[in-house]
């Protein structure tokens, strides 16, 4: 197994937001983290990527303990944050070359990867424009490309398809399936349940800092006795009655 998370807790000050998360991800698997806003997906993903330390629990990525060796973890992980964090006053060309030098990627290899990915996402025309002047979707593509430049074994993607147009989203989806074939490991969070249904081998449903259900989408549907992933999700996160209540109150008010 490539990712092993056991009893993961995270506190910010006195506020515990992860209460003992446990899951594993195997070679060649795409694992989806689904959960309502504020449930702890991004926090979990930041810990897996070595960006923030866990408070308690064991988190091992490809044999590396993230609490002890966050720098080594960063070498094998490609992390895409929920909101792109880029240098607005650099051009994409400058930014990629900066990432390449930090990652110590040989120049010719870097050049080849940049060219392939930039062409795939159709952003060649923006390569010499300041990042600060680019659209949200184009920035997201730059963030995605920069996370792939060191050819990471593990990809941690936090709502990474946000803002991508349908063509780019399809290209990225196909790319992820290729990565999976190569044996890479992908942890993926999304609120787009149809997307999770298309690409995830297994999903973990996270709610208030706990994984409350885990399995393939079919297993979850069977377990929850529901036909669609949306119904499974709403049932598990106890939102269905609330949604019905809010909708009927809205109808009365309008
Ligand atoms: N740096 C921080 N300091 C204090 N609290 C934080 C910090 N980062 C996250 N939190 C809190 O941790 C909880 C989980 O947040 P997190 O961003 O992990 O949720 P999420 O599931 O990714 O939500 P969303 O779907 O809205 O992106 C929230 O209550 C959030 O306010």
UniProtKB/TrEMBL annotation:
Residues 3-233 form the ABC transporter domain. SMART domains: AAA (SM00382). PANTHER family: ABC TRANSPORTER ATP-BINDING PROTEIN ALBC-RELATED. GO terms for molecular function: ATP binding; ATP hydrolysis activity. The keyword Nucleotide-binding applies. This is ABC transporter (ATP-binding protein). It comes from Pyrococcus furiosus (strain ATCC 43587 / DSM 3638 / JCM 8422 / Vc1). Keywords: ATP-binding, Nucleotide-binding, Transport. InterPro entries: AAA+_ATPase (IPR003593), ABC_transporter-like_ATP-bd (IPR003439), ABC_Transporter_VariousFunc (IPR051782), P-loop_NTPase (IPR027417).
């Amino acid at each position: 197994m490539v990712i092993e998370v056991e009893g993961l807790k995270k506190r910010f000050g006195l506020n515990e937001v992860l209460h003992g998360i446990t899951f594993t991800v195997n070679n060649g698997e795409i694992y989806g983290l689904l959960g309502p806003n504020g449930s702890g997906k991004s926090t979990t993903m930041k810990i897996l990527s070595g960006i923030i330390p866990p408070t308690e629990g064991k988190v091992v990525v490809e044999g590396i303990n993230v609490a002890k060796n966050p720098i080594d973890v960063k070498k094998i992980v490609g992390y895409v944050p929920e909101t792109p964090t880029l240098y607005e006053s650099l051009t994409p060309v400058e930014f990629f070359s900066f990432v390449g030098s930090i990652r110590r990627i040989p120049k010719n290899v870097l050049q080849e990867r940049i060219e392939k990915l930039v062409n795939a996402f159709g952003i060649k025309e923006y390569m010499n424009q300041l990042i600060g002047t680019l659209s949200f979707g184009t920035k997201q593509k730059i963030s995605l490309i920069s996370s792939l430049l060191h050819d990471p074994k593990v990809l941690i993607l936090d709502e990474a398809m946000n803002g991508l147009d349908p063509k780019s989203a399809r290209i990225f989806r196909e790319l992820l399936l290729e990565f999976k074939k190569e044996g890479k490991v992908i942890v993926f969070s999304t609120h787009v349940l149809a997307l999770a249904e298309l690409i995830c081998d297994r999903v973990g449903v996270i709610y208030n800092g706990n994984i409350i259900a885990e399995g393939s989408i079919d297993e979850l549907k069977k377990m929850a006795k529901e036909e669609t992933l949306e119904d499974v999700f709403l049932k598990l996160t106890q939102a269905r009655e609330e949604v019905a209540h809010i909708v009927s109150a809205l109808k009365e008010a309008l």
